[in-house]
Amino acid sequence: MPKFRKEIYGMIKKYMAVVALLVPAVLICLPVFLILTGSVMDSLEMKQYLLPVFGEGEGYIRWKLIPDYPTFEHYGRLLFMTPSFFVLFWNSVKMVLCILAGQLLVGVPAAWAFAAYSVRGSRALFALYVVLMLLPFQVTMLSSYLVLDRLALMNTHAAIILPAVFSTLPIFLTYGGFRAIPPQLFEAARIDGASELRIFLTMGLPLGKSGLLSAMVLGFLEYWNLMEQPLAFLEEKALWPLSLYLPEISWLQAGFALCASFVTLIPAAFVFVLGQDYLEQGIVYSGLKE
Amino acid sequence: MVETRAGKISLHNYRVRNKQAWGNGKKYRRRRRAFLLFLLPSLAGVTLFVLLPFLDVVKRSFQTAVTGEFTGVKNYGVIFQNQAFVLAVKNTARFTVVCIPLLVLAGLLVALTLSNFHNASLIKSVYLFPLAMPTATIVLVWKMVFYRQGFLNLFLTKIGELTGLWGSVTTDYLGTGASFWVLVASYLWKNTGYTVVLWLAGILAIPSEFIEAAKVDGAGRWKCIRYIILPNLKGSFYTIVILSFLNSFKIYREAYLVAGSYPQEDIYLLQHLFNNWFVNLEFDKMAAAVVCVGAVLFVAIMALQRIWDKAE
Q1: CB contact under 8 A, A261 and B286
Q2: Residue ranges making up the domain that contains B148
Q3: pTM score
Q4: Is the ipTM of this complex over 0.90?
Q5: How far is CA B115 from the centre of its chain?
């Protein structure tokens, strides 16, 4: 019965594909799992497991799926006895929110300008914006520093926020959303006598919001993870974002560090879960050509 | 994907509108005014924060750092004889050349497999999740995995015991040349997800009639991939290469957090060098290097766009 055989082969193939996809998926999840179990593990227990890593013990590192002595001591210490954690947490929140709000105010109209109007030179300007978007931080670090220094903004949060507000990546993503609207709609509105501002506010924004939200989701994940900029432009540790706090915790407090990691992860994971569709869409938009 | 197709259609409209709008006096002026007003805040900021200071950097690349004396191309000569610069360029180039093909292929394999499933969103989320994980949260885990007596060696030793092929493994991954591969692994871990999303969008945008027709003509799975799917993915390919290249610079976060400002010499990247120059206020060398790296990137981006234009 060749047909029956073929079906069996098809099923085997399909299950093999599932397994082949799941193995890397499990590997991807392992770090999250380690962070989670480590954050509720008793300090002494963890010390035993990690002894080889400190170079004092024999053998290899060990781990338990479920800790022998699960405890929330790290969470208690972090949330109630570590005021510096809160300072940095709010630094992060403040910077991310200011950057995103600024990008909304500055970037969204710019994206609209590129998407809705074509005038002489607009394509060349857009190409310039794309090149700027692709430059890594290390290339723009010195020029940003020169401006920030002249404006006396070094070592303030504005040194992180202002350059990020004028980043051109969100413009590109938002542009992708605006461009998907059929332009005949605006033409019709113009004939009916709508002003350009009104077309933007009442048609562009509601219809093109997917691109805008994608830019916000990608932006949140990017700026929650901010590292290069604060390392270069913020000397005072009290101004640092959370992402720079974690590496400061020593190995001896691994459980505490994993707990802080987990708390840092929560907002990012939250935004990821809520905004996943927009995130995927944003990635697709980032791949679209002008 | 519909957005992709809608995007292409509206690109066509954009060009058509271009032709209509230009030369039409009053309407054109109205559009230009609106364009400028909407763009103004952003353009002002970009000029102030990026373009003008960049010119300043170009100027500084021909000057000494402290006195500002004009020195011609001396700074450029200095950086190309600087051992750290040569090493950093070499390592960065090696990292790029190794990582990007690996990432592009890994993403393609996963995406091709996923495209067979009707509902793959959960697996896709899992692959995407590392993108959301702040680098700092993962560094401790990397250390636990890659230490001499860490999880990876534990795992390898266990396999050795089971198969009887080798004894206990005690490679030091972070202090030797293997650190390069640790970086490669963490780059792949972080970035495979969005490559999968981009490839999948490309695959789903291929009209299913093409594949159906090929199947009717007797083409198997492999022939479909070889002759229908891959040729239609050229656009996605260039995009993925550009974005992967860009994101390859962000590996500095992992490298810095795991190994600090002066890591093992195989992973001393341009990013480390720029940062160290910045900290030491060696702005003359830095300016010259910024101009060089910026120029190389600019040429690379333009060349890729040219190829991309031709491919479509």
Answers
A1: no
A2: 75-311
A3: 0.85
A4: no
A5: 24
